[in-house]
Amino acid sequence: MTLSGPDVWPPAPIKTERLVLRASEARDRAAVIELNASPEVGTYLGGPRPRAELERTVPEVPGRRPGFFVVELDGAAIGTVELNPQTPETPVHRQEAGETHLGYLFLPEAWGHGYAGEACAAALDWFSGVLPDASVVLYTQTANVRSMRLAAKLGFTELERFEAYDAEQWFGVWSSAR
Predict the structure, then answer these.
(1) Distance between CA atoms of 174 and 98, rounded to whole angstroms?
(2) Element spanning 32, H or E
(3) pLDDT in tens, 117-144
C-alpha cells in the first residue's frame, strides 16, 4: 500500500487539540515560500532559498502530493509536515530502516509552543493507520537540539550518526508496530 489513492489521499483534515493538518491549497503558497525563504528555518537545512527563485518555482498549490500536510493554527498556515518516500539515492542500509521519511518546517513565530510535536504525532498516527506495519525515518543535524528533542519525544530510536553537509547528522527510526 502507498500513501496515494482515493481511499488514502487526501485524508479528511486531521484535527488535534489546537491544530488542523490538511492537504495543501492555493492559499498556502505564501506560507510555503516564507518557510523556505526564512533564514531561521533554513539554519540546519543548508540555508534559506532565494525568495525570487521560490516565487518563480513554487506551484500555485504547493506540496500537492500524498503525505504533504499543511499545519494550521486558528485558520492560518504555520508549517508543514511531510511523510515522503525515501529516494533511490538513499544508501541501502538506510532504506531498509524505513521507506518513508518524516520532515517538518514551522514558521519561527510558531516555535516553542509544542506545535511541531503535536502535528508530527498526528501525522504519524494517521500514517500508522494507513500503513500499520511500516516504519518512518528521520534525519536531523545533532546541532539542532530542538529537532533532537522532538525525535526522542515522538519515539524515534537512533540508528546511527554520520557526517554530511559539513555537520554531524542523526538518523533514527520510528515504527507504527510499536
Answers:
(1) 8
(2) helix 29-37
(3) 999 999 999 999 998 888 899 999 999 9
